[in-house]
Design brief:
This protein has 220 residues and is mostly helical. It is 78% helix and 0% strand. The radius of gyration is 17 Å and the shape is globular.
Length: 220
């Protein structure tokens, strides 16, 4: 069993809840209430800066140049098409600046703190553990719904598109491969710390979807 598979097996309840969440099912069906999608977009957009910094730090700590190239290419996707998706969705959903800049929810703050902690650790395996948990989760749920209806609004459909398909699957396999590659070289304490990062990320992914599904009001 691959190390990343072992990590997933260690927090299976959170994994299953996050990758088969009613929020995602209703998003794909087009039945998700817009107040819930607006809350989700406003909160999720707050991850971009910390995610970019985490990914950039992982690039800097990659063992070899060839290990960093796929992450650099992924970084361009996050700062390009994904960032543009948010801006277009904010406009289409008529979200004014105060909605877009809503205060961070507790679940959002917790994930931001996790990303920043992994980055500041200077440990490649901790950075990869958080990145793998986050991106593997999204690939898994999004791939369930690639057969969505032709009339699905773009703010739902393109979120699925961004996290599915061969290109994104390759990104996730690269991230998993990097963590699998370094795992045998880690001592027991380093493996434990990376495991905590992965399991915490999975718990927070689940919590974030739970919060979004509650449909918290977006406030300025």
């Amino acid at each position: 069993m691959r190390p990343t598979e072992q990590l997933c097996a260690g927090c299976l309840d959170d994994w299953q809840a996050a990758t088969d969440h009613p929020f995602c099912r209703e998003l794909a069906q087009g039945t998700l209430p817009l107040n819930k999608m607006k809350w989700y977009l406003a909160q999720d957009y707050q991850f971009i800066e910390s995610f970019v910094r985490l990914l950039a730090s992982a690039i800097a700590h990659a063992p070899r140049l060839e290990d960093s190239i796929p992450a650099a290419q992924f970084l361009a996707l996050v700062t390009g098409p994904e960032n543009t998706y948010f801006q277009r969705s904010f406009v289409a959903l008529e979200m004014p600046p105060e909605e877009q800049a809503a205060p961070a929810a507790p679940e959002t703050l917790a994930f931001l703190q996790l990303m920043d902690s992994a980055r500041h650790s200077g440990r490649y395996e901790q950075m990869m553990a958080v990145l793998v948990a986050a991106e593997w989760t999204y690939l898994t749920w999004a791939e369930r719904y690639t057969g969505y209806g032709a009339d699905l609004p773009f703010w739902f459909a393109e979120w699925i598109d961004l996290h599915s398909g061969q290109g994104f699957s390759d990104v996730v396999e690269y991230l998993r491969g990097q963590l699998d590659q370094v795992w045998p070289q880690l001592d027991a304490d380093q493996q434990q710390q990376a495991t905590v990062c992965f399991e915490t990320a999975m718990r927070l992914e689940r919590a974030f979807f739970d919060a979004a599904y509650r449909g918290e009001t977006v406030q300025g």
